Amino acid sequence: MEQNQNTSLFSLNLDAQNSYTLRSMASWSKVLGWVGMILGILFILAGIMVQQAMSQYGGYRSYRSGGISATAIGNYGLIGYLVLGLIFIVTSIFAINTGGKINAALRSNDQAALSSGFANARNYFAFWAVIIIILLLFVLLGILGSLG
Amino acid sequence: MENSQADSSLFEFQYDEELKNSLQGAANWAGMAALISFASSILGMVNFFVQRAKMQAIYRQYTEYGISEPSMGGGLISAMISFVIGVLLFVFLLKFSKKTKQGLETNETYLISEGLSGLSVYFRIIGIVLIIAIIFILLGLLAIIGQS
């Protein structure tokens, strides 16, 4: 009884159900991480290919686009794809770390690793929250520009 | 006695202060990311209809010259699919955030377990969506390589 009272504040224990759920979550986090990593690399490759394809048109200038050369358009596209690819790669690293640390924690009963795993999950969501806020601002500006 | 000792050795994790802080941080940021991504899904749909109305207005000007408005059914379908996926992700991420925070406040392990299962489903959905995206990107890259 006294033992229960002493642990009443921190009476949460990891039971079998929790363990199974954690393992499943960690596995899918790793899958998401690796898939996101591949996607990030593909975005970078796609950006390079688009830039190369646009460069073939050399100094062709489109008057409709305000005189910007095809090479410049290709370069801007490359920057965009690079940024997108880097975003996916960074968030994938967080997701892979989340899954890896939680799985390691469950294997070796390492409390610190479990805590670190959830800290990586926190970083993953924090990063995406900031990115989505920035994207939201761009979408809002686009809508306001269209209505204006 | 031996069984309980074996059980406790497997499930030695207790939610200590550091683990609770990490989990709380992850739940807080996940809740924020869920709300922001839901807002961006709604804004994305609004943006789609605004842009579509703008395109329709432009094409209406050229109807008398025999230029017909292109079908925008494909765009609507992809916008709807994106919106549905966004709503699903919002539901499961919010479930993780709310249930985990409730579980930490009330020391209820089953609530945390429910929250983690929501997170597992969230990672699963995103993982599958990204795998499909990779397939489409690879097909696109193959098409570009094939044409050049």
**CA-atom Rg of chain A in angstroms:** 23 Å
Low-confidence stretches of chain B: 1-11
Q: Provide the succession of SSEs of chain B.
A: HHHH
Total number of strands of chain A:
2
With strands numbered from the N-terminus, the spatial order across the biggest sheet of chain A is: 1-2
Put the structure in a nutshell.
The complex is a heterodimer of chains A (148) and B (148). Chain A is mainly α and 148 residues long.
Describe the protein's architecture and organization:
The complex is a heterodimer of chains A (148) and B (148). By secondary structure, chain A is mainly alpha-helical. Chain A contains four helices and two strands; from the N terminus they run H-H-E-E-H-H. The termini of chain A are far apart. With 148 residues, chain B is mainly alpha-helical. Chain B has one domain. Chain B contains four helices and no strands. Chains A and B meet through helix 2 and helix 4 of A and helix 2 and helix 4 of B.
What distinguishing features does this structure have?
heterodimer, A: 148 residues, mainly alpha, two-stranded antiparallel ribbon, elongated, B: 148 residues, 4 helices, 0% strand, disordered N terminus
Topology:
The complex is a heterodimer of chains A (148) and B (148).
Chain A: H1 2-6, H2 16-55, E1 61-62, E2 68-69, H3 70-108, H4 111-147
Antiparallel strand pairs in A: 1-2
Helix pairs in contact in A: 2-3, 3-4
Chain B: H1 2-10, H2 17-61, H3 73-106, H4 109-147
Helix pairs in contact in B: 2-3, 3-4
